[in-house]
Amino acid sequence: MEKIKEIIKLVLKRTLFKFGIENVGYLPRWIVLFWDVQIVFFSLITSGFITNDFSFIFFNRYFLIPLLVGLIITTGCFFLFKTYVGLIRHSSYIDAVKLLLASVSSAGMLIVINFLYYKFFDEFLYSSIFLILFFLCLFVGLFFYRVVAKQIYSRFLLQDTSDVEKVFILGVSQNTISLAVAIENEYPRRFKVMGFLEKEKSNSNKRVLGLPIIYLKRKIYVIIRAYQGTGLIVLEDDLRDHEKIQMIDNCIEHNIKIYRSPSISEMDSNSGINESIQNIQIEDLLEREPIEINNNEILNLIENKTVFVTGGAGSIGSEIVNQLSQYKPKKLVILDQAETPLHSLTLKIEEKYNDLNFHPIICDVRNKENLEHLFNIHKPEIIYHCAAYKHVPLMEKNPSEAVSVNILGTKNLADLAAKYSAERFIMISTDKAVNPSNVMGASKRVAEIYVQSLYNHLSNNKENKTKFITTRFGNVLGSNGSVVPLFKKQIQQGGPVTITHPDIIRYFMTIPEACQLVMEASSMGEGGEIFIFDMGKAVKIIDLANKMIRLAGHTPNRDIKIKAIGLRPGEKLYEELLNDKSITLPTYHKKIMIVKANNDEYLSVNTSVQNIIEESRRLKETEIVKKIKELVPEYKSLNSYYEKLDK
Fold it and tell me: In CATH, what number is assigned to the domain containing residue 243?
């Protein structure tokens, strides 16, 4: 019997290969549609055959019009209900409903055409019996074809399961059951579902699809190993459930592989299950609530406006560009001094938004003459200022560069925004600007002070139209040079994974989250505010390192060492979004708060900023830092050469 099965499998694969179908797990849409049309043809012929007392006497040139009308109308209904879309091996009741709707619609439209034909030509195209038979033959044929295709696939084309990974699915629901069915029918097989793990005792000792539902009365990893499983699949929607995240952490600690999957309804119909189920990433385990933003407000702000984004090819800037592109700006001008990243971003934007009026421009924010030329040409209405130097140790060694980009660059743009009456100027700042302990954070704090004082100064002028807004947040996962890509690289190289201190903690947010909140804050700002974001729970960097090592399938300090190398110059053990004197006000968005603005006097601030810029041009590093400390008295250097200035 097995030999016969192997012969049938070989014949089927060779036959499919002759039709150009190399992946036997996926039938192209045109083949599905082709066979559906054949079923329509045979349904029409069969209905005529039965109606005419099982005779083919009807099959003549007079039947050509009813045949063509039936084929055209029914094929149109297939396109309308997309019955040919999706994978036949994953057909479900939803697909059966589509087939029923297409069949009913076809029969209904033929009835209407039948009456219209009678009205004009005094005869019917089809008899009532013919139409009833056609509907039945069509639906049964379409349904039976899919059942047969599914059975042929499962019996003859599925691979041997001895080399697939044995996994459990977390939770029992319609979505997880549908996922299990899809996994079992996938080709080539990647997983074998061993059962469902459920925290509700009422479902224990039951079976679904012949698979056990196991009550989690013991540690989850113990149960998985007891059944010789090696992995756990979790639906993406469950990654915000605190209790399930704890279960996942328990599995990670004991080297159980974790996979995330969208629900079947959210999967791309052109992708298989294997492509949709991915290894879980550290970003998935932050327990962050989904961010809801007011798209209408953002659309009102951006639509048909000319928007500038500085530092547009960077981690934050490029995501801002991506999100802005969805809100139909009249013109999107991207400024960056980095040629290669800007070119890469340009290719992505042109591919994704081919109708966008997009202008990538090489520009250094320190060059005011060049900036003014661009302002004069494009007349920006909204400016997102993302350009900045952000690496703490490098800026500690190069304070003149930190000043020239973070302070002078911001001043240039803010001054021009006011001069050219831009509607809004949104500056991206950092939590390192709060009680700064390093040059980078202090330079960003100076930029914040300048922008706020400029707004205060201009707000007395009724002709001023520009609203100056600052957004401040902490570390973003996955940004260039941040800890997560660094750890991934070190793990790939076999370690060690380097941390600066075992007790260091940081707040993290994903890049899309941060940019969504920037967009929301930019639409709600009235001018002069500093918006801070709810960054969620603080994360110990050593815990992050341990978890990432385990996610990669290794054991910390056995396979890959974790090494503390000491705090870097200017680095704190923890970051703050507020200083002790700050007063916060709520907004309508629970993740966004306003820091009450300081009323710094512009002329005094401008003089101090000019002095700092002049010192940076002289490259007198100690004098630069000294001048910054005069303007930002809470700036106290840590682990730095400049600590002597605080004594």
Answer: 3.40.50.720
Task: With a cut of 50, say whether residue 227 has pLDDT above it.
Answer: yes
Q: Output 515 or 508, whichever has higher pLDDT.
A: 515
CA–CA separation, 408 and 429 (whole Å): 15
Q: Which of 157, 179, 199 is the last residue of a domain?
A: 157
pLDDT, one tens digit per residue, over 447-472 is 999 999 999 898 877 777 899 999 98
What the block records as the tokens of 647 is 């004594």
Average pLDDT, rounded, for the chain? 84
Cis check: omega of the bond before 556, within 30 degrees of 0: no
Please indicate, yes or no, whether residues 213 and 314 belong to a single structural domain of this protein: no
Q: Where are the alpha helices (DSSP H) in 174-330?
A: 174-184, 220-226, 242-253, 273-276, 295-302, 315-324
- How many domains is the chain built from? 3
DSSP state of 528: S
Question: Tokens 């629970």, residue?
Answer: 590
Closest C-alpha to 311, from 332, 329, 334: 334
Q: Per residue in 60-72, pLDDT tens? A: 777 788 888 888 9
Spatial distance between the Cα atoms of 618 and 403, rounded to a whole number of angstroms:
12
Domain hosting 170: range is 163-280
In 36-150, where do the E strands start and end?
none
199 and 152 in one domain?
no
Kindly report the CA angle at 527 between 399 and 454, in degrees rounded to 5?
45
How far apart (Å, rounded) are the C-alpha atoms in residues 111 and 89? Answer: 33
Structural domain ending residue among the three candidates 245, 280, 315: 280
The helix (H) or strand (E) run that includes residue 308 is: strand 306-310
User: Could you tell me if 197 and 170 lie in one domain?
Assistant: yes
Q: Give the up-direction half-sphere exposure of residue 124: CA atoms within 13 A in the CB hemisphere.
A: 11
**Cis geometry, peptide bond prior to residue 28 (ω within 30 degrees of 0):** no
Q: What is the pLDDT of residue 274?
A: 75
398 shares a domain with 524:
yes
d(CA 239, CA 183): 20
Is residue 642 in a domain? no
Residues 58, 106 within the same domain: yes
Q: Which of 116, 595, 613, 253 is nearest to 401 (CA)?
A: 613
**643 backbone dihedrals φ, ψ, rounded to 5°:** -60, -30
Mean pLDDT of 511-530: 88
Tokens of residue 275, six digits: 């492509």
Q: How far apart are CA 88 and CA 74, in angstroms?
A: 20
pLDDT for 22 beyond 50: no
Q: Name residue, tokens 């004991």.
A: 254
**Is 432 a known active-site residue?**
yes
Q: Where are the beta strands (DSSP E) in 301-357?
A: 306-310, 331-336
Q: Amino acid identity, residue 386?
A: C
Write the DSSP assignment of 541-567 as a string of letters: HHHHHHHHHHHTT--BTTTB-EEE--P
Q: Write out the DSSP string of 392-422.
A: HHHHHH-HHHHIIIIIIIHHHHHHHHHHTT-
From 98, 257, 390, 432, the catalytic residue: 432
Distance of alpha carbon 484 from alpha carbon 477, whole angstroms: 6
